[in-house]
Amino acid sequence: MTSLEKKAIEVLNKNWKDNFSIPCANLYPFQWFWDSGLIAIGLAHFDMPKAEKEIVTLLDAQWGNGFIPHIIFHTETDSYFPGADFHHSSLHPQASQKYRSTGMTQPPVTGFVLEEMYRISTDKKATLNFIKTVIDKVYFNHKYFYHNRDPKDEGLVYIYHNWESGTDNSPMWDDVWKTMNPPEYTFERRDTTHVDASERPSKREYDHYLHIIEIAKEHKYNDAKIAELSPFLVQDPLFNAILIKSNKSLIKLYELIGGHSDKISQLQDWQNKAITSFNAKLFDEEVGAYVHYDLRNEKPLRYLSSSSFSPLFAGIPDTERAEAMIQIMLNKFGGDHQYLCASFDPTSDRFNPKKYWRGPVWVNLNWMLYHGVSEYGYNDIAERIKKDTIEIIEKNGFYEYFDSRKEIHEKGKAGYGGNDFSWSAALLIDLIS
Ligand code: 2M8
């Protein structure tokens, strides 16, 4: 075992809280949906029972309608804002009685995470037995999405908050903010007490984030009302690619388990419709990759980001399109002076290589792109993504995000946000195993 792998395990053990993991101390002191799934992939390499527990705890917080919240507030702490009182999940009639949570979700990684756990497992029979006990909850979660988040029956689901995207302050949301004028709320941010404010979203951006939640709360987190009224309503290529990837995994796992033909054919139907719409609606010929679609204002948000390439991870583009997209990724994001893959177009005025989701490299996206690019047979490029990811962690530590400019890494610290960050450690373990 390399010393880097040992350190990664230490990070995960430190962030383990009996039956779930926190993304990182102080900054993110609860369980987050997509973090939790990605962390389970790392845990599976050295402690499968913990990986299973992580998933069991996550799914235990599922609501009566199949929804899985983005944050599960297992403990009382005021080191994070906005906390459980603000989100007030119990407004929803089917919210979990057991856990306080948010009333929004995050990219549905659980399906493909279960398949990854099966791939990693050295005792496939035991892991499949575990999967049998949880897979229906994941299926129910997908059913929730297709029944409640697709008002036009397109096979593409919407997100109603930038925090649902996982790419919280990505520059494409600036276009949505221009359509809103929220009040100037008074509140005490906690993130900027843990991390340099220049690496986090602005106060005005937070006003927008809170305002969308206030509207959802006014309607008790009712999906139909949110679809009708939320000023933020977006079809996100990353979110939808992850759902499609997870559909695929559920089909494979149900086939391995045997039976369940009704669920397999339903998943297949969702899948066929989703992939067709995805290619027809979200691919932008001029940008040369997939873009977000603003459903509220009926217009595409025509920007390149690492999310634009994420459909490679789910096998969505055909081989010709995939090749062209990878070329764009290399040309714009992959020069000799750059680490792959910046989270936003480095040639754009809105690019900021130090600020959160406005430009830095993120390990979770790199992990998905690594797998996507290698599935299409571009092994050299996949290796480059892997090498870049390992190198930025080796040079800086297990940060939350990293500067994409190599020169900055030559000069000193180029890791930003939280340190000893769980998914950076978990996915590093997976990449080097
Ligand atoms: C970041 O988001 C949270 C809100 O969910 C925050 O800034 O307070 C994002 O990077 C998100 O993708 C991630 O899941 C979360 C915890 O790591 O942090």
TrEMBL record:
Alphabetical UniProt keywords: Glycosidase, Hydrolase
Superkingdom of the organism of origin: Bacteria
GO molecular function annotations of the record: Glc3Man9GlcNAc2 oligosaccharide glucosidase activity
Domain Mannosylglycerate hydrolase MGH1-like glycoside hydrolase: 28-424
One Pfam family, short name: MGH1-like_GH
Any GO BP annotation: protein N-linked glycosylation
Record bears the keyword Zinc: no
Similarity comment: Belongs to the glycosyl hydrolase 63 family.
Protein name: Trehalase
Organism encoding this protein: Aquimarina spongiae
